[in-house]
Amino acid sequence: MDRATEYVEGKSPRPAVCKLTGLPVWTVQGTDPSAKGKNTGAVVKIASEYQPVPPETLAGTPFRPAVFRGLKVTPYVRDGWVSYTVWADEMLSPQSSNRGGKQANANAAPDASKAA
Questions:
Q1: Is the C or the N end of the chain the one with fewer CB within 10 Å?
Q2: SS3 state of residue 114
Q3: 91 and 68 in contact (C-beta within 8 Å)?
Q4: Burial of 47 per CB tally in 10 Å (0-12, 13-18, 19+)
């Protein structure tokens, strides 16, 4: 999990900020160890006030299984090629995502609608 970097032509790289929320952007490198070929994973971006904490490592493996809630894909064109950015609202452990309903999570930004 790293802080995303924004590159603007002619300017120094700087930490990325979500254009919609103003929150810092974090990146997670997801991978599928059973996938064959070149496309075995993807970077997922999460806008959150605090750095998301990955789930615990699965015993006996180097993997940290995660569930991404609120996935969105944003396509864009660069140098004549269509690419995309994968966004998620939050990252959860598979155990907490199986409990059903919206779970309180350290990865989630505070919900402003609940402020009184």
A1: C
A2: helix
A3: yes
A4: buried
